[in-house]
Structure formats: C-alpha cells, structure tokens
Amino acid sequence: ALAMSDIKKQPIESPLTAPDEYDYDSSDDEDIRNTVGNVPMHWYTKYPHIGYDTEGRKLMKPDTGDQLDDFMAKMDDPEYWRTVIDPKTGQRIVLCDEDVQLVKNIVRGRVPDPNVDPYEDHTDWFTSDTMATPVTAHPPSKSSFVPSKWERLRVGRMVHAIKMGWMLTGEQRAEARRQREAAARGDNANRFYDIWDRQAGDEDEAIRRKLPYIRPPKKAPPTHYESYNPPEEYLFDDEELEKWRNQEDYERRVNFVPTKYAALRRVPAYPGYTSELYERCQDLHLAARVVRHRVSMDPEDLLPKLPAPRDLRPFPHLRVLQYLAWPEEAQDSQQPLPITACSVDPSGQWFAASGAGGRLAVFELTTGYRAWSAQLESASEGGLVSATWNPCADRPCIAAGGAGSGRVYLVATDRCDRLLASRFAEAWATTSGEQQQQQQSAAIWTILSTEASANGAAITKSRTLATVQLPTAQGGVKQLAWHRQGDYFLTVSDSGSLLVHRLTTRSSQSPLGGAGKKAATAAVCCAQFDPVKPVLYVAEKARIQVYDLAKLTKLKTLKPNARALSCLSVHPTGCHLLAGSLDSRLAWFDLDLACTPYKQLRIHTDGVRQCVVHPSLPLSASVSDDGSCLVLHSRVYADLLENPLLVPVKRLRGHQVGSVGGSGIVRVTACDFHPRLPWLVTGGSDGRIVFYSS
C-alpha cells in the first residue's frame, strides 16, 4: 500500500479530477470510498443505502442532516458556499480555491484550465505535402504479423461453451425463436403434461429416491344418487328441491338433482361435466406429492411455564380503604374532580395527592385522614397535573406542577420527622437570604414567605416555599420527577421541553442543549433519572434516549416498538427500565442486554397512564384508561445469566362508578408503592383514592 505522502506527490491533471480509487489501497479503518461500481446513483434515491460492497453488504448513506442542520450550517459555517456533495459517496467536499476558479471559468464560458492560452501561436508540426519517407521510422509491432495468443484462448473457451450447451449457435437460436413463435400462436402441444407421470426414465435416480412416488388421490365411488334409475327415497320432492336451490354450493349434500330415467339410452348429456372435470384437475394440482409426517403436540406445551400467583406473594390484592379526596367539592359540583397524581413519602406514613381542581392534599396512608390541604391553582387554569414527594428524607417537601400556568410549587411539610423539617426550614431560609437569582436560569424562581403562602395551610405549619415559572412558550407542566439525592428535579412541559432544576442554587437549565453534538429535536413525553448512575432517560414519542449527564453525551437509543410513550419507571438497580404507552403496551428493557425490549406485554385494553417499580420489593404496577391497575411480579436476579421473571399476578378494579359521578368506565390515572411494604395506593378519574395491601 502507498503511504499518504506518496499519494499527495502524484500529479493531478485538473483541480476537480480526483485520484482513481483503485490506484491505491488503504488499510485505514475509516476509509469511506464507495465501491459500488459504475451504476446510476438515482437507483438508490429512496433507500437508506447507496449500494453494495464486494461481499453483498449494504453501504449505508452518511448522515446528511435535516433542513434545520443545513440552515445552521449555512448560518455558522463560513465554508458552506463552497461545499458540494459527492454523488458517489454522499460525502460533503469543500472546494479549494483552484476548484472554485475552475467552476467560475466554466460558468462564464471560458477555458476551464487557467494555464491554457487559447490564443497562442499555432505550430505546424506536420506538412500537408506527400513525402517519400514515413514520418516515424518505428519498426512494425509483433502483434501485426503474429497470431494473438489471447484470441486463441478466447475462441477455445467459446468452442467449449458451445459443446457443453452453455452458448447457443445460430441454428440453436433460430430453433428457440421458432418455438417461442409457435407458443405465441397457440401451439400448446408441448406445454401441457401429466404432473403425476413419474416413470423411471423421466427423472434421475437420485431424485426418485429422494422423492418417492405417491399415487394421486382416488375419486370417490358413485352412490345411489348418481344412478340413472335411483330408488324412490333418493329422489327430491318439491320442498327438498326448493331447499336445495336456496342453499349455497358448500351447503348442499349433493351437487346435482337426482333424476330417474326409464332406460340408459334416454340419459342426456351431463351439464356439470366440464366444471367437475376442472375441479378434479385442481384437486390433482394442489394435492401434496411428498410424504409429510404430522406432528402431534399438545397446545399447552407451547405456553411458557409460569409459577402460580400464590407462590409469588406478597403482593397487593386486598382493597382496604376507598374514599373521596375532596368530598366538599364533589357536593358543590355534583361531580368529583379527577385525581391526577399520587406520591408516598419516604417514611411510608403519608402520601400526597393532586387534583384537576388545583388542590394539593396530604393524607395518612393507613387511615385516610386528610392532614393538610391547599388550593394552589384554580380549576380554570387547568389544575395540578403532577405531585411528587422528595425521595430524600432530609428535604421534606413536595413538588406540584400546574397544567395551565406553567408553575412548579415547592411545598414544605412537617408531616414527617419534625427535627428534619425544622433543619430543612432553617437551611432554606439561610440559603434564600444569601442566594441571588441567576441571570442565565432557564426558569424564574420566586421565593415566598409564610404569610404569602397561607392560602389553606392554616391548620399546619406546611407552606409553599417557592414557585418556579417555566417560560411561557413551553406551556404547562406535564410531568415532574425527583433525583434520588433530592437536590434536583426535572419538569416536562406540554411543548415537549425538558428542564432540570436545583434546590440549593435556585437555578434551572436545559440538559439536552449540551448533550452531544445533536440534541433531541423531537418533543419529550416524559423523563426519569437513573437511581444509581448519572444517567437521564428521555422518552420521545416512539423512542427512548439515554444521556450521560457527567459526560454530556448520548449513550444509546431504546426502541420500545410503541407509537406513543406515556410513562417511564427505572428499576432500583438501574439495569432495567419499564415503559408504558398509550397503545396499551408495557415494555421491559434489560439495559445491559439490547436496545429492544426484553419482553413486551399487552395486558391492558386501553392506554397506559402510569407505571411504577417498587423501590425494594420485586413488584411493578401499571394503571390504564380501562379502569384497572395491574400488579406484576418483576424479579431481577443477581446472576447475570438468569433472565428476569415477569408474571402478572393481580388485576385490581377498585375504581368503579359510585353514587357521585356519572356512568361508564372510570380511568385510573395515578399509582404509587409504599417504600418498604407491598402496599399500593391509586387515584382515578372518579375522585377516589383506593389503598391496597397484601
């Protein structure tokens, strides 16, 4: 192989003339030369590849970007005006100054090569006079009088091909042409043959041993119905004849009407002879001509062997409590407001619930006692769509997002360890006095005092600490999710924008702006933090992007085979992911195995609204618009060679149409597990909260 320095020293006849790709060989792994050959490139316009290599593998087209990338390159790249695309390889090539000058000369109608003078003096090297001696004194070449060796070898190969029948002579081609013309005229004498004629001389001995002769199926023998003089009981009366005529062909017992004649000579021609002969030929043509042994198998053997649900206990299956979250609003409006989110605190004693009416409340999990309630937003603004408890016990606060206002409310509560609540309040007050609003924050933080947030928190010391106003162009809040350390939380807006907020610095930023060279351009449906690694999972409409927050790079793209993703939940080990979609699918990903789902479940009849994985037990749950909550046993083994065990164990239907509300199917909209016990709490569109235990 030539070195790159030797290639650069080779003379170039024209600035636009590239060296022949077969003149040198390169061992570089990044060699992107196109070896598809001299074929029209427009054949591959509608395909993602540009041709095939010598081994038959597809040569994929390089990523040329979309219109937005082209517009950004046009604005930022100073060399954009002199960049062209190679039609052979699809690569972008930046023209040098000599190439640009050559193109300009061609456009202006000048000589392309600037070194050529079209007006130089003509030198007459030859004369028009006849000379006695030749111009050159070279001796004649040897090939002019010696027979060619290569022509002799070529003629020999052609003679051998004619003898073997690979090449047709003129007479053979004429005979083949005459046969084609005879076939076109309708001479079908040689076109039809007996497919069951398997005599010894017709086929090779090896083929006859491999495919043994099978006799054609016999025609059924005639019955009394087909006799020209059948008995009286075989003849049709008027009622049977009318019934036979009204039936379809496949419903008739016989396909003809039995008729009685006095003598055989009086029998006329059978009208169905042609159709029956045609059906007989079809039966012979479609009949199997090889012996196929039928496999007898029990269908139950094809189903996977799953353990019984009673062997997978404990899991929530008993409905312990069921009550309305806001009964006073249900009495005023005669229709309960839907529950939009449920979240259990790290201690497991309390849980928070938000409603479409804009009210946030804290309940005791085991008794249903409402300890605190506040009206954060009005129903005209869209209410609250998400409420999540901080997973860190040292920061006892709740984050709630408004659907229409685009605000995130940070509410501190003392419904936990009072010492931790007081420490968090002191730390918040200290940092609030020292911290200044950052100029480059993507959202506006507003620190509220106790008096400014006393809109319903009079019975307890719970209060709203701050509000985070998202940009107006992003719309309302769609989803909230906390980091495991409790200092960061993310928000997904209705426009598909993703922001990450930090409590200690009161700042907000967009993580996808610097995650790799190309950020996610599709709208974000939901997102989750990894509980172990600095990884962010971002779900778009039909795919899941995995980003490394430490290196600001994209790790992989998961393909859940779904049309509209709606929710995500990460396993506590960080090695598995559960995704739900609005096309009633659940996808379980083994992140160390592949980018496609390890198992896909279609156990709901309507869209999945939320899915959650238990933080300490092998349990998972999903709620759907079909009014049910499905509990799965999802065990992940420490042995990497053992596949996860996913078994649906219980379908909970605690949300039903009650005395308050309308009729029809009640949608289950939210669910959450107890942090340590097999307990589950769900909320539905009927305004009820249901608590399940084992």
From TrEMBL:
Residue span of region Disordered: 1-31
Gene3D superfamilies assigned to the protein according to its UniProt record, in alphabetical order: YVTN repeat-like/Quinoprotein amine dehydrogenase
Keywords in alphabetical order: Nucleus, Repeat, Ribosome biogenesis, rRNA processing, WD repeat
Protein name, UniProt field: BOP1 N-terminal domain-containing protein
Ranges of compositional bias, category Basic and acidic residues: 1-11
Domain of life according to the entry: Eukaryota
InterPro entries documented for this protein: BOP1/Erb1, BOP1_N_dom, WD40/YVTN_repeat-like_dom_sf, WD40_repeat_dom_sf, WD40_rpt
UniProt feature, compositional bias: Acidic residues: 20-31
GO biological process: maturation of LSU-rRNA from tricistronic rRNA transcript (SSU-rRNA, 5.8S rRNA, LSU-rRNA)
GO CC term, one of those recorded: PeBoW complex
Subcellular location: Nucleus, Nucleolus
Occurrences of domain BOP1 N-terminal (ranges): 44-316
Single Gene Ontology MF annotation: ribonucleoprotein complex binding
